[in-house]
Amino acid sequence: xxxxxxxxxxxxxxxxxxxxEQIKTRVRELGQEIRAVFGSGEFTLISIINGAVMFTxxxxxxxxxPVRLDCIRISSYGDKMKSVGAPQVVASLTIDITNRHVxxxxxxxxxxxxxxxxxxxxxxxxxxxxRTCVLLDKIGRREVNFExxxxxxxxxxxxxxxxxxDFAERYRNLPCIGVLSPRLQNASAWx
Length: 191
Description:
- The chain is about 20% helix and about 30% strand.
- It contains three helices and nine strands.
- It has helices at about 20-40, 55-60, 115-125; strands spanning about 15-20, 45-50, 65-75, 90, 100-110, 130-135, 150-155, 160, 175-180.
- The longest helix has 19 residues, at about 20-40.
């Protein structure tokens, strides 16, 4: 049975911000930037999941270094479009990162609360160094002074989904990143 071609858009998107090809190209470039900084040495990737799982998997494929991987799960949005206050740690680190170089990966740097919280948790484990990488940087929503070391794309203050980013746990599987249609940007649309 022939496979159906994947379309870049989705009927629930108002617009596509970044196509699948644009994302692949930028992730490849980020891999090169990261290798230039870390050299050929080993380092540990810590992915903030669920949102960064696709980005982390693709980015790992662009890094030749020996890497170790751990994940940390944070809850900050629930079914809302804006952060619902202080992020909560749902699952923490499982491997020892003491005296190891660490790259913390997140899908989006928005208010800055989540990555600040997780960076603080990581620092308590005394890594040799800590750098951060985010796919998207939405600087217009920043509430905490934080700048990532590696940034995929800077974006305006729009609610985006796809490529791991979700709304109420939907749309993570889209190959592109797009602006969610305004008619769907409230929880009552899903009732």
